[in-house]
Amino acid sequence: MQLTPEQRARLAAIGWRDEIALPDDAPSDHRPARVLIQHRNGYVVHDGEEESTVQPAPRFLKRSLDPTERPAVGDFVLLKPGNPVQIETILPRHAALTRAAAGERYQRQLIATNVDTVMVLMGLDGDFNPRRLERYLALVQASGAHCVVVLTKADRHEDLEAVMADVMDVLPDVEIHPVNAKDAASLGVLHPYIGPGQTVVVVGSSGVGKSTLTNTLLGRERMATNEVRANDSRGRHTTTFRALISLPQGGCLIDTPGMRELKLTGEEDLDAGQFADIDALAAQCRFGDCAHQSEPGCAVRAALDAGDLSDERWASYQKLRGELDVQAANLEAQLKRKGEPHVANKALGQRLKGKYGRR
């Protein structure tokens, strides 16, 4: 299947890039589109010219199907003509932001696909929590997308330098931008991430300013907004579903509902991300299976005693590592039941690495 230059030009408005692979054997009457909104009773897609409501092919409705294998906001798909028009094929994804769904039953939940940058929004009010940023970063790094931290409500904070120092201590290699989400000039620092062909997804707690930021970038009021509660700076869910929006800057933005719970999926690699320094310390321990308690020659304990590694950072790492081990075991068991040994072995590797280290 080949696209004409005219088709490519139209699709570019919804984030299409030439490296997206189209199947050679796709029927000529199928047409590409991008998923804008996912509802319980169907999808809203855009084919570069107009929006339309379509249905998923019947195989996507099977209850046994992993939710990550269903169409999601951000997906490029092929539409099959008919009444109704159906999503027949999901084109290969180049990045997918995923978390584990809430509840006791293990299940992965897609937040957005084919994203280049994840903007993690955190308010400089009662919402501010550097430890939560570590959890966000673990999820973003596992997605394959680029992470940017956006500190909203910067106009209300008196000591930005101290806040920036706190965040950079937690995420030393991540770009951080304090902004006023209501001020278009303040958001100019974000324009390099939202140019033509780029897709950004914004995530964060309710009331952090995701919809306000979206409206300011659009230059008009499209997304509903609400004030946060005065006592704890928390907001209500003004955005109730994920939506992909074309921006005047040429890129696309995916707005998401507030996230109250951020559960790891078991596919994250803490040691290759923001905790690489702790991994490097652990590699210096005398024993390969060091539990970092009271063993002689423990480089981690030595760093804690010397103040080179803070107790808060170490406690955060231990908490995330424990959750990751549990989720990797859940993922391994689920994938083995479905007969996916290669992916299950990857989950097993994560679990063993957490238990025994890299040696």
UniProtKB/TrEMBL annotation:
GO terms for biological process: ribosomal small subunit biogenesis. GTP binds at residues 152-155, 204-212. The keyword Iron does not apply. Keywords: Cytoplasm, GTP-binding, Hydrolase, Metal-binding, Nucleotide-binding, Ribosome biogenesis, RNA-binding, rRNA-binding, Zinc. Its cofactor is Zn(2+). One of several proteins that assist in the late maturation steps of the functional core of the 30S ribosomal subunit. Helps release RbfA from mature subunits. May play a role in the assembly of ribosomal proteins into the subunit. Circularly permuted GTPase that catalyzes slow GTP hydrolysis, GTPase activity is stimulated by the 30S ribosomal subunit. This is Small ribosomal subunit biogenesis GTPase RsgA. It comes from Tahibacter soli. The lineage of its organism: Bacteria, Pseudomonadati, Pseudomonadota, Gammaproteobacteria, Lysobacterales. The gene is rsgA.
